[in-house]
From TrEMBL:
Pfam family for this entry, one: DUF7318
Membrane-spanning parts: 21-46, 58-77
InterPro entries from the UniProt entry: DUF7318 (IPR055742)
Name of the protein this chain belongs to: Uncharacterized protein
Gene source species: Halolamina salina
UniProt entry keywords in alphabetical sequence: Membrane, Transmembrane, Transmembrane helix
Amino acid sequence: MSTSGSTYGDIHRYEPARESTAAAIAIVLLTLLEIVFVFMFTWGLVSGWGLTADGNMFLGGLLAIVFIDLAFILAIYRKEFLPDVMVVKKRRRKWEDLYIRGDQADGQQLEGAGVWDQIKRAVYPYYKR
């Protein structure tokens, strides 16, 4: 589904998620595998496997497997269960507020009643533009 709106915040493209059953089953199985590996890592940590060189490498491998499995779960979830949405965003010129003019190289003196306004402009350069 596409819209032709070009104002800020309009949805330009929306494709619904596939939500396949095979992906849901894969996520459930990978989650069960994740629980097993977390249990093994916790058991090894509590029982002192990390005190030997081989046990320490084994615990490191288990921890790596835990995070790789979690990455696969999140990747499948993102691919299969989240919609693809493109939102129109506000464009800014690349050179806008990136360069300082020569007369502003030394900065400005903070003085007068507008001190807080000057600080806001220095901290957030897109303030009131």
